[in-house]
């Protein structure tokens, strides 16, 4: 029976547990005797109810059990039983606490494991940031090799260049006036960017500059007429072959004259890029043929604002 399940205790267990074991033993014996009698009576065909002798035996067994319990535990005070019972409860609670501590240690180890993963993630993110900073440093180093001081003839025949344009944002494009399609498209885009930025509040003034890489055909008059076809804001520059090559090299612009036709016409292959120059005369950014005017205008707007904030921080 479940009520008589074995209880494991050591030899130093409390009196309370001794009472429990004693009761278990005596009740087991009592129930066992009663069970045997019942089984024996069940095989008796003439048995129609409990016999008087059975009742007497049951009474004797109960009296014997009571007498035995009084003899063994009659001298134990109730407060001693309560004390031993409380000690037993404390030991049980300590066992549960010890088990919970094992669980807590497991939780702590799990936390440390996840913490290790988090630390690894932080280290990885830091490495990524350092790599990005190194990449930016290399990009800036590359930018430092693009641009610089330059000087050519403007459409009025006067020498002008980076020194005269300082204090202004400049959007520069290299091309040639006989270009059938690409140059006109890119110059129109450049003028559109300038006009979009002028509509900002406050306006962001940008000076559009066209530099010819075909000095043999692009005379001062030709360049002036060409620029006026797009916008009166567009400033045109040219020079002799040596001067043009020097400026093109400064901005890493590739240009090469193609084969001539029967009419003595030719195409000039060249880099199709707009260069953004800041008010200090330094190369700041570039935009390829695939960029739209609105996109370029938004990028320049952000760069101008950042430049203004950087100048204010430097001032203070």
Q: Can you walk through the features of this model?
A:
The chain has 316 residues and is of the alpha+beta class. The chain folds into two domains: 2-76, no CATH class; 151-315, Glutaredoxin. It has helices spanning 15-42, 52-73, 78-144, 162-165, 182-198, 220-230, 241-250, 293-315, and strands spanning 151-154, 159-161, 169-175, 206-212, 235-238, 255-257, 268-270, 273-277, 283-288. The strands form two sheets. It has a seven-stranded mixed beta sheet with strand order 2-1-5-4-3-8-9. A two-stranded antiparallel ribbon has the order 6-7. The two termini are 90 Å apart.
Category by helix and strand content? alpha+beta
The percent range for strand residues is: 5-15%
Helix content: 55-70%
Query: Which word captures the global form?
Result: rod-shaped
Low-pLDDT ranges: 1-17
